Amino acid sequence: MSTVAPLDLAALDTLLSDDEKAVRASVRQLCTERIDPFVAEWFEQGTIPGIRDLAKELGSLGVLGMHLEGYGCAGMTATEYGVACLELEATDSGIRSLVSVQGSLAMFAIWKWGSEEHKQQWLPAMAEGTAIGCFGLTEPDHGSDPGSMRTTARRHGEDWILDGQKMWITNAPVADVAVVWAQTDEGVRGFVVPTDSPGFSAPEIKHKMSLRASITGEIVLDSVRLPDSAAFPDVRGLKGPLACLNEARYGIVWGAMGAARSSLQAALSYAVERTQFDKPIAAFQLTQQKLADMSLEYTKGLLLAIHLGRLKDAGTLRPEQVSLGKLNNVREALEICRTARTILAANGISLEYPVIRHMNNLESVLTYEGTVEMHTLVVGQALTGIPAFR
C-alpha cells in the first residue's frame, strides 16, 4: 500500500479531476512565487504594495471572475473556482478577498444584473485586472440588516443623485468602479459608479488587526450625479445584492479550508521538529490529539466544500446550503488555527509563521458576508420552517 499523505488522510484528492488539480497547481505556483515571500510583511505594514500589478498577474492567470462566462472571463466550473479560493486563502485571506470581491461581488453583480453596456465597458478590463472593482452594501449602522440602508438614490431629471456612506468595503480605495446599492422610490437598486465621479470618495480604513494584507475603505457619496444608464435595469429589492453575497460566501466555504490547511501544516512541521524533554513534541499524546482533531475537522470541511461545489456545478446549490458550509468551515478553520497556535506556543504569535495571521484574518471572515448568528438562523429556518430573524 502507498504511504498516506499527512494532509490528506481521507484521500480526498481522488475526488478532484485533472482540470481541478491543474487549477490548484497554477494558483499555488503564483502564490508561492509572487505572494508567499512577502505577505507577512504586507500584513505587518497593513497594505498590499503594487496591488495593481498583482491584480494584473491574477488576471493573466484567469482567476478574476473565473467562474463567469463571456466578456473575457475564463468560464471555469464552480469547483475549479473553489479550489482556487482554497489556495489563495492558504496564502492569506486578504488575497482571497481581493479576488472574491472582484469576481464574485463586483463582476458577478455586473454580469448578472447589469446592462449590456455595463458588461462591455467593465467586465473585460476587470477580468484582466486592469480595472479593480468594489461592492458597496454594508453601512456604518447597517450590516446584517441591509434592508435598512440609508444610502439613497433620487431622480433628478434624467439623472440619479446618490448620497450616503458605505463601510468596510474591500478594494474601495483603489477601485476604478463601485457597485453601490441604494434606497430609491422603486425599492433597493444597484448602480455602477465610476470612482472618478465628482462627489465620490473612498478613504482607507486604518488600524485593522485583521485582514491587514487587504486594502479596505469607506465609500462616501456626496451628491454623486449619474446618468439613468448607471442603474441596473431590471433588478429591484434585496434579491440583487443577496445573490451576489451568496456567490462570495461559496468561495469562503473553500477559502477557510485553505487557512486551516496552512495552519495545520505549520503545526505538524513544528511539532515534528521542536524538541522538549529529549523528544519531539509530536511524540506526546496531547499534541497528537490536537493534530488528529485538527486533521479531522479539516477533512470534514474540505469534503463539505467539494460536495457543495458539485451541487453548484449541477445547478442545485441552495442558499441555506451555502450558509451551512460558511458557518461550519469558518468556525472550524478558526478553531484549527487557535489549536495550531497552542502547538507553536510563543512562536505561534510570530509572523515568521502563518498561524497568527490566519487566526486574526479568520476573525473577520467569521462575521463578514453573514455573521455566525445570521447563518445559524438561516440553517435554523431551513430545519424548522420558522424564521427567527426578528
UniProtKB/TrEMBL annotation:
Residues 17-129 form the Acyl-CoA dehydrogenase/oxidase N-terminal domain. Residues 237-383 form the Acyl-CoA dehydrogenase/oxidase C-terminal domain. Pfam families: Acyl-CoA_dh_1, Acyl-CoA_dh_M, Acyl-CoA_dh_N. One of its GO terms (molecular function) is fatty-acyl-CoA binding. Residues 134-224 form the Acyl-CoA oxidase/dehydrogenase middle domain. InterPro entries: Acyl-CoA_Oxase/DH_mid-dom (IPR006091), Acyl-CoA_Oxase/DH_mid-dom_sf (IPR046373), AcylCo_DH-like_C (IPR036250), AcylCo_DH/oxidase_C (IPR009075), AcylCoA_DH/ox_N (IPR013786), AcylCoA_DH/ox_N_sf (IPR037069), AcylCoA_DH/oxidase_NM_dom_sf (IPR009100), Glutaryl-CoA_DH_mitochondrial (IPR052033). Its cofactor is FAD. Belongs to the acyl-CoA dehydrogenase family. PANTHER family: GLUTARYL-COA DEHYDROGENASE, MITOCHONDRIAL (PTHR42807). This is Acyl-CoA dehydrogenase. It comes from Mumia zhuanghuii.
